[in-house]
Write a structure and sequence with these properties.
two-stranded antiparallel sheet; globular; disordered N terminus; alpha+beta; Poly(a)-polymerase, middle domain; PAP-associated domain-containing protein; Beta Polymerase, domain 2; 5-stranded mixed sheet
């Protein structure tokens, strides 16, 4: 992990390079001019606020470098996965074991749990019955491992075994055949590599959401996955020029839900990174403020769904106005229809408080949000943060 001084020097170099590119390519409206909707103009964030913007970029970067998952922790998790696979192979000979989620998709922190998917068959399992039975069959063998303890079998919609590894001090969650987690882990890992700003923003936004108590799917709030989809969606259609492309559109064979597992999804797969680079050279602070502005002022949660799969027309993503946002977004009614067809159920619109489309199954990753009060809290979190940023106040004033 980099020291704070090293992190500062590293970011200053990046900021300096970005500023040089900006001076060559962007109009002289100040550092914030090109990326705000009409409600937040260069008069709000002009030259006089350059110190505030730089400090905010530094805050985001330092938080990222001080909390991101270290190489050592990642290596420990890989060793633990290999040890577990040996144990599991004694019960299910040809089973595959995949690390999924933040431990491997690039958005992990130093205290991230390790989520794993056990693949025992190529067919879909009935999670409540079959998956629970498989986990109960596996549990006795896991309990024989002296390096594991604190076992709990959670009989949820997606049943899991929770346990703790004594050697690495890592908490683990193990599911069976919830393969969508493997696919979306691979997709997010590739998005994280397209642009260096994606990971710092993702980790900082998760922290921001935790501080404002809008992050925790188990309590009917936004999950980490939903927050990352919100960020990627904004970076695709909410800023100009877009920071991120639509990878599913550009590489349909690679990001294909019909690829059979245990086909190995390579997290180190090399895309043509240079071709995917954006001309957008906004700093971390500018993109963070743009993210807040997008969901505070421009995105209509009642009408639109958040989607990273849906591709707008080229003209609709070339502006940051509210009208262009409408044409760049998937209608909520359409998203609900797709989700209902895939899930083979009827999903009333009124039950979808916020719709964040899962990019492979097209289901709603925010389905745990049922309360109008929680929706209001989420909207207010964006609005209040936007106000604090406009006043150039510390973010800590929101939760201190």
């Amino acid at each position: 992990m980099s020291s704070p001084s090293a992190s500062s020097n590293e970011l200053k170099t990046i900021v300096s390079n970005n500023k040089r590119r900006r001076d060559e390519t962007l109009s002289p409206l100040g550092s914030a001019g090109p990326f705000f909707a009409s409600s937040l103009t260069s008069s709000s964030f002009g030259l006089s606020s350059s110190l505030y913007m730089e400090n905010l970029s530094m805050e985001i970067w330092k938080f990222y470098t001080s909390t991101k998952q270290s190489t050592l922790n990642y290596t420990k998790k890989l060793h633990l996965r290999n040890a577990l696979h040996m144990v599991i192979s004694g019960v299910f000979e040809n089973a595959g074991l995949f690390i999924v989620g933040s431990s491997i998709n690039g958005f992990g922190s130093h205290n991230s749990d390790m989520d794993m998917c056990l693949l025992v068959t190529s067919r879909n399992l009935h999670q409540k019955n079959e998956a629970t039975f498989i986990l109960s069959q596996l549990l006795p063998s896991l309990k024989k491992c002296r390096f594991l303890h604190n076992f709990r079998l959670i009989r949820a919609k997606i049943p899991i075994i929770k346990f703790h590894d004594r050697h690495s001090s890592v908490d683990c969650d193990l599911n069976v055949n919830n393969v969508i987690g493997v696919y979306n882990t691979h997709l997010l890992a590739m998005y994280a590599k397209v642009d260096w700003r994606v990971r710092p923003l993702g980790i900082f936004i998760k922290y921001w959401a935790q501080c404002l108590d809008i992050h925790d799917a188990q309590r009917g709030r936004l999950s980490t996955y939903s927050l990352l989809l919100m960020l990627i969606h904004y970076l695709q259609v909410g800023c100009s020029p877009p920071v991120l492309p639509n990878l599913q559109e550009k590489f349909p064979k690679l990001f294909n839900y019909n690829i059979s597992l245990p086909y190995k999804l390579d997290m180190c797969y090399q895309l043509p990174w240079n071709e995917l680079q954006s001309n957008n050279s906004l700093h971390l602070s500018e993109l963070f403020i743009g993210f807040i502005d997008y969901y505070a002022n421009r995105f209509d949660f009642n009408k639109w769904a958040i989607s990273i799969r849906y591709t707008p027309s080229s003209s609709s993503s070339s502006s940051t106005s509210s009208s262009s946002t409408a044409t760049a977004c998937l209608l909520k009614t359409v998203a609900i229809k797709h989700s209902s067809m895939n899930a083979n159920i009827v999903m009333p619109i009124r039950n979808c408080k916020i719709f964040i489309e899962e990019p492979f199954t097209q289901t709603n990753t925010a389905r745990s949000i049922h309360s109008d009060n929680i929706v209001l809290s989420i909207k207010n979190a964006f609005i209040n943060t936007y106000t604090v940023l406009c006043l150039q106040q510390p973010l800590e004033s929101l939760w201190s």
